[in-house]
Amino acid sequence: MLEPSHNDELPPIPGKRYFTIGEVSELCAVKPHVLRYWEQEFPQLSPVKRRGNRRYYQRHDVLMIRQIRGLLYEQGFTIGGARQRLSGDEAKDDSTQYKLFLRQMVSELEDVLTVLRR
Prior knowledge:
Layout: H1 21-28, H2 32-41, E1 48-50, E2 54-56, H3 59-74, H4 79-88, H5 90-117
Antiparallel strand pairs: 1-2
């Protein structure tokens, strides 16, 4: 598992529509029980639930989880502080999400470039 301070070293998010809780756990370096707890604490996290209460996360959920992880583990926010930051400073959070999105897009384009060079 990655150290909390290594958020930049998280694996790139694959181009899938839905992710299971196990996949999100690996993509965000957070255990599944922590993800389930965060769903209760952060109203922004609401994965689709299907048969048998199985959770399916979308790309925006994964980005939000990475943002929450960064606030809690890297910036030292409490759960309440992170919740307030996410709900109160949406303009700043949009820029953070935009930066994450751009970083992910660059990574995916580099992967495409590697495949094309072969």
